[in-house]
Amino acid sequence: MINIDLKPMLKGDISRYSLCVAVAKRSREINDEAVELKEKEKILLEEKPVSLAVEDIYSGKYIIKESEEIKNY
Length: 73
What we know:
Elements (H helix, E strand, L loop, with lengths): L15 H26 L7 H11 L8 H4 L2
């Protein structure tokens, strides 16, 4: 289970909702990439896609852009 401090991930005006959506989208991308590789090269993921997505966002590899609709809500 992941136990990461959310404060660095929510810097600026990023909402928890946007963080959740970003993690879900990135984990789907990771899963889709893993399925393609698994079919081609028989490779399995060592970690769950959600864990990898959180690590990508936490490390700054992926940046969350909050929409204006959410900022004004």
